[in-house]
From TrEMBL:
Residues 38-83 form the Acetyl-coenzyme A synthetase N-terminal domain. The keyword Coiled coil does not apply. It comes from the Archaea. It comes from Methanothermobacter wolfeii. CDD domains: ACS (cd05966). Its EC number is 6.2.1.1. Pfam families: ACAS_N, AMP-binding, AMP-binding_C. This is Acetate--CoA ligase. SUPFAM superfamilies: Acetyl-CoA synthetase-like (SSF56801).
Amino acid sequence: MSKDTSVLLEEDRVFKPHYTIVEEAHIKNWEAEIEKGKDHEKYWEEKARMFDWFKKWDMVLDESNKPFYKWFVNGKTNMTHNAVDRWIETDKRNQVAILYVNERGEERKLTYYELHREVNRTANVLKRLGIRKGDAVAMYLPMCPELVISMLACAKIGAVHSVIYSGLSVGALVERLNDAKAKIIITADGTYRRGKVIKLKPIVDEAILQCPTIETTVVVKHTDIEIEMSDISGREMLFDKLIEGEDDECETEEMDAEDPLFILYTSGSTGKPKGVLHTTGGYMVGVASTLQMTFDIHNGDLWWCTADIGWITGHSYVVYGPLLLGTTTLLYEGAPDYPDPGVWWSIVERYGVTKFYTAPTAIRHLMRFGDKHPRKYNLKSLKILGTVGEPTNPEAWIWYYKNIGRERCPIIDTWWQTETGMHLIAPLPVTPLKPGSVTKPLPGIEADIVDENGKPVPLGKGGFLVIKKPWPAMFRTLFNDEERYINVYWKQIPGGVYTAGDMARKDEDGYIWIQGRSDDVLNIAGHRIGTAEVESVFVAHPAVAEAAVIGKEDPIKGEVIKAFLILKKGHQLNAALIEELKRHLRHELGPVAVIGEMVQVEQLPKTRSGKIMRRILRAREEGRDPGDTSTLEE
Ligand code: PRX
């Protein structure tokens, strides 16, 4: 950290927007827009008008069967029609829709017209392989145009996509494929990462042995490695071969606003991942209009969101949001620090990126390498910067603001979740900013901070973050688990409000500061990992009898795993076993499960009913009083 940034740590200055930002902004009066959003149904209905509907809705919001809300009831539309096909009739036809760049400096551009043709051909292939409206198609792909094409091809014909982040591994894949009952999996030979190719297909080969519903594996030839086809049953096909000569016209499926668009799995406080289900109409309206508000998208923008498409940020703001607004979305495949920690800024300079959206963990990581990397590049094209995934600490905020934004670009710190589908709490570009605060709920959104009885807590005091009115891109249920949907999100706090699972506080200006999760979920470099999920992987190892996992603070990743392990007789937690357990975790969960520390213990604090009391482990770790221990086992 440089000297002057540390001074700014105690800085409580409010950062006003640069005049160039205000001049350009679609929405110039933040407070007035929030006022307008108070009539939330009218507000979102207005936004829905920017899209093509084959049939208009009869009702904006149906609340008759809470918490199963419906938006744009009986409206008929299609996501791919709105994100791609309708642009073909406009002057965006030959504009670049997807700009793919990788760490080797290779690029590929697809115009809206080209994307439209590729999506149609892929949709026809899916139909030929037996996919019909409502069927689930899984994707386990790196950041590559084929991933976007496949998602849009599903949406075109009404198939439900389930994208699995390519950093997850066999165990996670098996669970997700089986839960969604996917019929097809689309994968690739591998992905480029730090000068190497990481193979993906062998992971799929291993996983599908345990996935009876998978009928076909489609393989994208993405890298320059040899693909080992293990085609015993004729169920494995190359993507390129399949689309060769395929018709580039495909009929658009008329979808009900409430028809499912995708399932995306995320971690919760039990070992079983949650299949978050998003539908068509509300999601479309929500993601596009929030991107328009928060990043003030204009014609000519070059939008770059660095998130992987395998997470919600990638779904909403790499793929759907930007295409629905007819902008150019940059897809980058590679690490932020390879071949050197200036690679992102070199891309900003080379292509003239205007709006840039990333995670605090990436900023903290790049900050370590100093200012000299960004200083080498001309970053004047940048207008607005953003963050998502975890609290942005003031040091990182200031570094980003000064060194990347050159004190001209506002930093849009966006709070939202896989479940919310879209930004819910975030500033607009004209909003006065306080480093570390997500400011206020967006227009059309009502949120509060309450105690366990649903009563608002006094200003400055921490409490549970709740959302008080439905919003269009909200998830509709947990796939195969309605009960969990009701209990986890809608029953925790009285009053029929949505419980986010985060703690937060409000300051005297009504600005919201997110404090972190209130449940047993870790946030490792902006990735959600359930402690129970990690524990169950540990105990699946033959040397481990019992495991308890908590988060341990980490300067770069925010949080990493600290594991307390009871080993089976005859085992010692020596260097060899530590290595082996790390490998085991990586194999089952993938590199997202970052281990900070493992310790061997004889006993774990448990309730009399046998539940591990992680709260006590955490308190001990942080040198705090463990609080009420009356339920602790003798
Ligand atoms: O704890 C909050 C944190 O990330 C959680 C949601 O994780 P996920 O569903 O994986 O989605 C991440 C990307 C939308 C939240 O419950 N979180 C997300 N954004 C922020 C945040 N914490 C603080 N500030 C944010 N801007």
